[in-house]
Amino acid sequence: MEKTLEVKYSTKNKKFYVVDGSPNGRFTSDSQGLDRANMLRPRAPSSYESIEWSPESGIEDDGQLMEDDHEWMYEGRIVNGMFSNVWGDKVDEFVVFALRHPECVNGGTAIRCPCTLVKCQNKKFLNVETLNVHLYRNGFVPDYYVWIYHAEKQDHQRCSSSVRVSVSETDQMVSDNINHTTYHRMVCDAAGPEFNPDEEPNAEARNFYDMIRARDKPVYEGNSKHTQLSAAMRMLEMKCRHRCSQAWFDDMSNFIQELLQQDNLMPLDFYSTKKLVRGLGLPVQVIHCCVNNYMIYWGDDSDLNSCKKCGHARYKQKVRGSGNRLYIRKLKVSHKKMHYFPITPRLQRLYASTATANEMRWHSEHDMEDGKMCHPSDAPTWKHFDGCFPGFSSEVRNVRLGLFADGFQPFGQSGQQYSLWSVVVTPYNLPPNLCLKEEFMFLTVLVSGLTNPKGKIDVFLQPLIAELKSLWGVGVQTYDISKRQNFQMRAALMWTINDFPAYSMMSGWSTASMLAGPHCMEDSDAFRLIKSEKQSWFDNHRKFLPMNHPYRRNTKDFIKNRKVTKQFPGVKSGDEILQDLNNRGLRKVIDVDAEVVNAAISKTFGWNKRSIFWDLPYWREHLLRHNLDVMHIEKNVFDNIFNTVFNIPGKTKDTYKSRDELNKYCRRPQFAQNLVTSKYPDMPFVMNKSQKKDVLEWVKKLRFPDGYASNLGRCVDANKLKMFGMKSHDCHVFMQRLSPISLREFMLNRIWEPITEISLFFKQLTSSSLTDEELRNLDEQIPVILCNLEKILPPSFFDLMEHLPVHLAYEARIVGPVHYRWMYPPERYLRKIKHKIINKAQVEGSISIGYIMDEAAKFASFYFKEGDPTLPLKEKQNEVYLDDIVDDDMFEIFKPLGEAINAEGKRYLADNEYTAAHLYVLMNCPEVQPFIDVFVTEKRKQFPNLNDEAVNAVTEQEFTSWFEKYVHNYMARERG
Predict the structure, then answer these.
(1) Cα–Cα distance for residue pair 817/805, rounded to 1 Å
(2) Which of 24, 526, 531, 683 is the most exposed place for a label (fewest CB within 10 A)?
(3) Which of 111, 115, 140 is nearest to 125 (CA)?
(4) How far is 168 from 147, CA to CA, in rounded Å?
């Protein structure tokens, strides 16, 4: 008599047992330690052996216990019309192997069934008895040689730092079999482990059933490469990547229909494609708002019909028009609405795909090299947060978030007045090559209106803050596909990044008064100029210098007759700020009496509201909550320097009013007005007409490597001798790379040096990796640099933007590299969002639909065979592969980095050009560096008192001739 055994798991003993239904109900193990157990195969009871196994049995569990050759799965299942015992033994080993890995077990004894049934195929969890019956009856799913769903580890299954591992070698082996492709994984990953295809579908699950059916249907009979789903996803991904219109998509679909046979399953148009893949889309909530931005109809207020503050009606009138032409609206239409995109499902999706799940743990698995901070996780703020909340940091899969907020005009400069504000959230768990990529920036809040919401932005952040509080306190159960297990995912907002006007909106600190410095706060020394009536931060930097610095006692070059003895007290902590807010009685914007109370307090106090971010229970513990945006600060500093040096009318800081008030604050009589001619003498930092012409002609001829910078020649106005239309990145390149070179020939050293020093400061600050020592040096240098600028420039030059650089090195030292915290990525992202506006009558709706389709396409693109969509798909223009053209013996400096832009030409170099080129080659060739070290050592021995500056000067003058003699002498010795 045949019998079937069942497996039970003892939670007390933490062991699996095979039970046969006998009175004692349990078989005992033999003395061999049991490297396998024979279970659940129809055979005589006497044939059972060693059937108890436990994790303590001593068997090494390295994922390689099973033999690598799995050909047995498809050979010898039936021999002479009967099930093979050898094949059955192998099945038993497979089952035991899977049961030994808890991440593959669901409910204690259920594992994924790998049989050929459509509803199984490694999708459905079955108990061991039913699974055994399925395998005997149906056999294994084709080409399942690597048991990726049953914890078998192979080198090609382990994720590397590149997202290209999303397409494994297993996918390539089964690419010809449409019943087992990466699109199966895509649908399962998107649905989550709780999705059961055997249950009766509800309205939400029906979308996944449509995709399940579509993934198994070939696009036409005989096609083994694409199913209906894969073809639709590829079409949608190409539309999103190339920013094509819906009309293009419809036309292309119609053209493909003409090429294929009539019974094909290719989508007919964009609507049918969107309907098919809607299961991959993520949710969006449309929330009605008060037209005056006082409240949103959300939560407890969702049923109100008018604003509880201003009384304005929620909906537009049902009847419109006049006279005999009256129209009645059938539906209620709100005066204003916002779109909210919940972040929880978007964060969960990062763990739903093998392309990103492993990368979300990078922040805790990488090692800091040579003390260099290359990621925010290396910085003190991150580590301080870990120390404050060890329970949160112990789960490395918990998510750290950054928040960007910015607004834009969707209709261009010449369009109607309209303001569209967006809030973008991005995770910082990812490695540097993926952080702040567009694929990992999540649009969260979209607010529209005729005007800027300004300080009332907190009204629209309520859903986000509520979700962040939930993610912090409770979290959400999330399935990690890389470890094949559920975990409770939590999230924390680390900081916000905004331009300076938005800084006030998000933080609540006013940025439009003499207390506008968010770090100095009440310790500011700003004052209002007498003539120009502008706020000035002139002579506001000596307090950052060491107490014994000579500039502190200087009464001539700064504000006359003034010595500085005070010292900057430091940045206030979160507890100190929160106590100030509580003591002053500031209200949140959403409070009923907030407008009246906050207006009265803000007249004498820098804070104008209590920010909604203080509702987050951990917000007070952050060392830095709101970042200064280096991108806009650098652009403003450059604009002020360039416009003043070039004396651009209307933009220069060197005006008549500035000259008139100069000697009221400073002792610079040489620049006073001539009483006879009533004219002012030229300032030494202002360039004359011929000098400006030379610089602009040089800029116009400049050529940069592909992708390095835009064409700055387009910004040159040769008639008015100025530059116009420069974007932030243009200013970034000019400030750091061109200013020191372009101005050196035309300025005195005492003027050129501080301008060059501020350029080099920004260059070092924006490096991709920084050490604590380097940042401390920058923090010590920047007050001196600003003081040197104060010695040559008038007080009117120093507005708040010239003061803020004094705090940038401090922020980088505690938070990490700048390029994770500036506005370049979100500005580019918003440009992409702006391109999604198709219907200008419904701006928010167009963006919402386009964004959701983009999300679905991005998620699907992780499963394409090309791999990571964040990597470039084609070579850059003029890109050269050195392996094809470079010899191993070629010096590094002569290796080409690109191709020539124009046809080659020849000309003879002048003597000074030849000397400069010769010196450049020698000084920048790594192979020559050892000889430079020998030369410097000799000079230091010969002249022990030489400083570094003198050594550099001697090297430039004498190294070329010394090196020539050195080589000749060496060759003579070799010949002799």
Answers:
(1) 15
(2) 24
(3) 111
(4) 13
- Most distant CA pair in the chain: distance in Å? 126
Calculate what percentage of the chain has a pLDDT beyond 90. Answer: 42
Strands of 481-602 (E only): list them.
485-489, 491-497, 527-528, 535-536
| DSSP code string of 89-126 | HHHHHHHHHHHT-GGG-BTTTEEE--BS-TT-TTSSEE
Closest CA to 44 of 7, 17, 8, 5: 5
Nearest to 100 by CA among 142, 65, 131: 65
Residue 477, strand partner residues: 488
Q: pLDDT tens across 171-222, in order?
A: 333 333 433 445 566 666 666 655 555 555 555 556 665 666 676 788 888 8
Residue at token pair 């200087």? 554
pTM score of the predicted model: 0.74
User: What is the number of other CB atoms lying within 10 angstroms of the CB of residue 221?
Assistant: 9
DSSP type of residue 876 = P
Contact assessment for residue 171 and residue 181, using Cβ atoms and an 8 Å cutoff: yes
> What are residue 423's phi and psi, to 5 degrees?
-120, 125
Smallest CA-to-CA distance from 287 within 469, 445, 405 is with 445
Flag whether pLDDT at 729 surpasses 70.
yes
- d(C-alpha 469, C-alpha 492), whole Å: 8
Give the helix, strand, coil percentages of the chain, each rounded to 5. Answer: 45, 10, 45
Q: Indicate the average pLDDT of the chain.
A: 81
Taking alpha carbons only, the member of 15, 96, 98, 104 closest to residue 56 is 15
CA dihedral 149, 154, 157, 161 (to 10 degrees): 150
DSSP 302-349: TT-SB-TTT--BSB--SEEEETTEEEE-SS--BSEEEEE--SHHHHHH
Residue type present at position 195: F
The pLDDT value recorded for residue 189 is 63
